Structure formats: C-alpha cells, structure tokens
C-alpha cells in the first residue's frame, strides 16, 4: 500500500511577516516615479502595472522572479503571474485556496506553481494557472515549500522533512482565454479574468503527491530547504545544518549525508546557488558550504552580523560572468565578494563607502542598487561600492531582490509593481546561467580537449590557476581548509614549472602541474569547478 502525503502540514504561520509593526504590510498609494526624477538617475521605466487587491486589508504576501516571470502572491490568496519581458502583461491569475488564510511563498518549478493555505497544498499548471491537484494536510508547516522537477519538500513543526513525488506534469492543452494585461499605472482598476475553481476536474484520490521519504530532522527547521542536484540542505536556527539525499530508501526513510552542530545561531536565511549554501551567523561570520559534502569552502568575517539573505548573482555582459555575492551587515553596509574564493571585491566598512545600505535590490555591470532602512534606494558604484546617488522610494514598502536580471523592481501594497532599468541597458540582461549538468559536462569536455604548450615557465601555483582560467576557461579553487586540516601549508605560493605538452588532454597537463605541489584536483559529476586538495598518500 502506497504511503501518501498525509503528514505534511496545515499552515499555521505566526512569523514576523504578520506582525502589526511589519513595514512591508503598510498600505500606501505611491505615484509612478516621474520622468524628471528618473532622468537624474539615468533610469527608465520598462513597465508599471497593478495587481488587483481586495481593498486596504489586502497587500502583497510574496513576489518572486523566475525565468522572465513575476509570480506575485497577495494576502487574500491571489496568485498573479506577469510576463516581465512583455510589459508586465498578466499571463494568468488564480485563487486556489481560502481567502485570507495564512500563507507562505509558493514553490516554483518549470511546469508548476505550488501554493498552500491553512488547510492544504495546491498544484497549479504554470502555463495556465489551472488547478492540477489538491491535498489536505494535517500538520503545521514550519517553513516555505521547496520543489524540483520530481519532488516537493515539506518541513513541518514535528521536525520532519517530507519529500513527495509530484504527479505527472500537465499535458499541453488548448490556449486558455487571454487575460487582460495589467492596467497601465495611474488608470485605476484592472479586470480579473475568471479564476480556476479549486475543485474543477479533479479527483483528489487519483491525483496527488506520493511520499518518497519522511526524515526526522531532530529540530524544527524554519527556513526554506535549499536544493542541489542530489541533496536537500537544511539550516536550523540554532546554527546547525544538515543534508539528506533526495532519494529515500525502500522503507520511505532516509539518512543524513552529514549533520553539523554549530556554536552560533544563524542571523539570516541562507543564500545559495545550485551547489553552495551561504550561512551567516550571529557571531559575525559567513560560511560557504558545499551542499553535497558539507565542506566549508571559505569563510568571511564582516565584523557585524549579516541580517539579510546573502544574494548570489552571475553578473553577465558580453559572455563574461562575474560570480558575485552581495551581503549586508548590521550598521556596516554592503560588501561585494567573489563567491568562488570569499575574497572581498569591496569590503564592508572600508572607508564607510555605503554604511546605510541595508538590502540588495538589483545589479547591472556598472551599478548596484540597494535599499536603506529610511526608504531610500541607493545607487552604488559596482567597482568600489561608493554611493553615487539616492532616491526616495519609501512608499514602495514591499521589498524585491532581483538576482535574475538587471531590472529593478518596486512594489506597494495597493498592487502597483514598477520595473525600472538603467538607460544603458534597454534590453534586459539575463543572469540565468546554464544548468549545472550542462556546465559540468562543458568542464569535462574542456579537460579532455588536447592542448600543446612549449612549457618551461616558472610561476606560482596561484598564477598557474589564473592562467588556466584565462586561457581555457577552467575554474579551479584551492581548498585551503583541506591543506590546513592535514597541517600542510596552502600551496598558492609554491613554485611550479609548466610542462611541455604535445596534443595532451588539458586535464592530464593540469595533473602533472599539481603533482609538483603534491596536490590533485577532483571534479564531482555535479560540479563545474575543479577543487584542488592534497594528493593522497601513495
């Protein structure tokens, strides 16, 4: 008998988002930024639309950005999906659950949007908004849902992580009736298209998620699970973190890949990429953790606790991508780090460049856009973090951070969403990168490609790593902790001699260089960077 998702969760959300003093819940009615004001900032409006609201008691509960779409959720339970690349046009709207029930942000994959209210989880077709399935739950959720292409992951107040296999994706259907575009800003109301009925053409008994595993985390998890290709990473408020494989065993149980107990509480939700989690602690440290292994790749000390989620962005222009990580520390401002190494490109508190910066908003190749706690948008020089200008956006109270593109988003609880951009970038710069599987295969292909080199050059290992990156586009990371744990000096400054190569695979040439430093590289099948570590004793 199949065990189904019976223990996953009635939502009893009592977090800070519902506190009466939460500024993101203030109702305001701002004007669209004026042309004169935007000209001073060299900004332009891409579009401005209203999402329908149920009067002043309503407002935004969450706004997410994914694949040129804006997925907006209101406190009254409306889900509105906008086409960010085409004037903010409304693609569909749906109200799958009960109005004004407690809600958490929806989970999203390539073909579905997954929403919960205080009584169940609803699976919507991402293309049309039609309800595909509904499941009633009976245990309180402790964190937002997570999802990949195969499974949905649910954390509940009984300190359990439940993974459930999703029903098959919806089959392509005839196009739905066209929804009206969002009303141009300033014109008043917007007509809401007919909403799919929660019970339409459903058989709850036949279409539902089936449990894959049920794991006892030991402690309640209160932040959304982070997903890599193979693992589910959980950060627990007390500073502990663990990961479990996505595939459970035949008994519907699971075992942890690792379980680390910290000595300092986490100060913010984890930032992440598809391979790394970035953990900030109340003792003012930031750790980069490899999700699949639990290894600490690097650490950074900003001097004060980081109070908002670190934001990882691949800032791309002309085929070149900078792997940035943006953090803001309490009363110290913002720093930009190289997330491959953890080294600061500009430091927090260095010359007090931007001590007011409190939250990341967006970035383009020239500027970083941040918010302060007084309602200003700060424009920072991306090269050094200096404040170049500021603009009062205090009436746009609902925060949006955009790591998907260079677009700047402002939102207010009257339903207005404004999309801005620098005039130098009329076409949106997409920061979405190739899938991890594609990047890992590209790296394997580069390592197998034959190269020829006269050899004989003397340089440090660090210089050689930089040369390989610039010449062949291969990223390598020297894991200093792996050397120090064996009481070995980090090999960056060790001198090596480049070998002669005559149509030899690049990977073999790199290995011969690392042999000189008594090191080796590993490339896990789901990573796109070579990790340099001490060679195994022979």
What does this structure look like?
The chain is mostly beta strands and 538 residues long. The chain is built from five helices and 39 strands. It has a four-stranded antiparallel β-sheet with strand order 13-1-32-31. A four-stranded antiparallel β-sheet has the order 2-3-4-5, with no helix packed on it. Strands 6-7-8-9 form a four-stranded antiparallel β-sheet, with no helix packed on it. The longest helix is centred in the C-terminal third of the chain and has 13 residues, at 436-448.
SS-derived structural category: mainly beta
Biggest sheet record: 4 strands, antiparallel
Number of helices: 5
Provide the spatial order of strands within the biggest beta sheet: 13-1-32-31
The value of Rg in angstroms is 24 Å
How confident overall, as mean pLDDT? 86
In the predicted model, the low-confidence regions spanning at least 5 consecutive residues are 1-19, 174-202
Write down how many β-strands occur, each being a DSSP E stretch of 2 or more residues: 39
How does CATH name the architecture of the domain at 1-29 and 50-227? Beta Barrel
CATH topology of the domain at 1-29 and 50-227: Lipocalin
Query: What is the beta-strand fraction?
Result: 35-45%
Q: Alpha-carbon distance between the termini?
A: 51 Å
What is the CATH C level class of the domain at 1-29 and 50-227, in words? Mainly Beta
Q: Sum up the overall morphology in one term.
A: globular
Helical amount: under 10%
């Amino acid at each position: 008998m199949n065990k189904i998702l019976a223990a996953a969760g009635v939502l009893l959300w009592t977090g800070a988002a519902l506190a009466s003093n939460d500024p993101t819940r203030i109702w305001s009615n701002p004007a669209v930024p004026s042309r004169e004001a935007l000209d001073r900032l060299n900004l332009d409006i891409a579009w401005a639309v209203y999402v329908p609201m149920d009067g002043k008691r309503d407002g935004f509960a969450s706004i997410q950005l994914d694949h040129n779409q804006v997925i907006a959720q209101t406190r009254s339970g409306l889900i509105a999906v906008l086409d960010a690349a085409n004037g903010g046009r409304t693609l569909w709207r749906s109200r799958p659950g009960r109005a004004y029930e407690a809600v958490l942000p929806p989970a999203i994959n390539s073909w579905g949007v997954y929403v919960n209210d205080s009584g169940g989880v609803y699976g919507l077709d991402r293309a049309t908004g039609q309800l595909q399935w509904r499941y009633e739950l009976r245990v309180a959720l402790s964190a937002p849902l997570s999802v990949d292409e195969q499974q949905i992951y649910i954390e509940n107040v009984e300190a359990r992580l439940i993974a459930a296999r999703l029903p098959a994706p919806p089959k392509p259907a005839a196009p739905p009736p066209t929804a009206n575009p969002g009303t141009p800003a300033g014109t008043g109301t917007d007509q809401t298209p007919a909403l799919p009925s929660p019970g339409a053409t459903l058989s709850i008994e036949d279409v539902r998620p089936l449990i894959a595993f049920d794991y006892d985390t030991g402690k309640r998890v209160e932040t959304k699970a982070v997903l890599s290709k193979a693992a589910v990473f959980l950060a627990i408020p007390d500073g502990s973190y663990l990961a479990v494989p996505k595939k459970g065993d035949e008994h519907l149980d699971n075992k942890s890949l690792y379980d680390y107990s910290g000595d300092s509480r986490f100060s913010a939700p984890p930032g992440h990429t598809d391979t790394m989690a970035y953990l900030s602690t109340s003792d003012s440290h930031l750790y980069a953790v490899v999700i699949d292994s639990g290894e600490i790749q690097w650490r950074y000390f900003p001097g004060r606790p980081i109070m908002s989620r670190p934001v990882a962005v691949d800032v791309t222009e002309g085929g070149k991508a900078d792997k940035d990580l943006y953090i803001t520390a309490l009363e110290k401002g913002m720093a930009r780090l190289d997330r491959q190494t953890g080294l600061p490109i500009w430091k927090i508190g260095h010359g007090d460049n931007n001590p007011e910066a409190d939250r990341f908003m967006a970035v383009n190749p020239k500027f970083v856009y941040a918010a302060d706690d007084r309602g200003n948008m700060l424009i920072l020089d991306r090269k050094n973090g200096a404040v170049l200008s500021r603009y009062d956006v205090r009436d746009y109270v609902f925060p949006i951070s955009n790591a998907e593109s260079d677009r700047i988003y402002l939102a207010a609880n009257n339903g207005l969403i404004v999309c801005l951009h620098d005039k130098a970038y009329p076409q949106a710069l997409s920061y979405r990168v190739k899938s991890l599987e594609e990047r890992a295969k590209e790296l394997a292909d580069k390592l197998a490609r034959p190269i020829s080199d006269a050899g004989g050059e003397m340089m440090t290992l660090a210089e050689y790593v930089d040369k390989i990156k610039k010449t062949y586009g291969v990223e390598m990371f020297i894991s200093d902790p792996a050397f120090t744990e064996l009481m070995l000096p980090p090999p960056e400054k060790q001198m090596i001699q480049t070998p002669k190569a005559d149509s030899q695979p690049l990977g073999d040439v790199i290995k011969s260089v690392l042999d000189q430093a008594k090191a080796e590289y590993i490339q896990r099948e789901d990573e796109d960077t070579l990790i340099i570590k001490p060679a195994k004793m022979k």
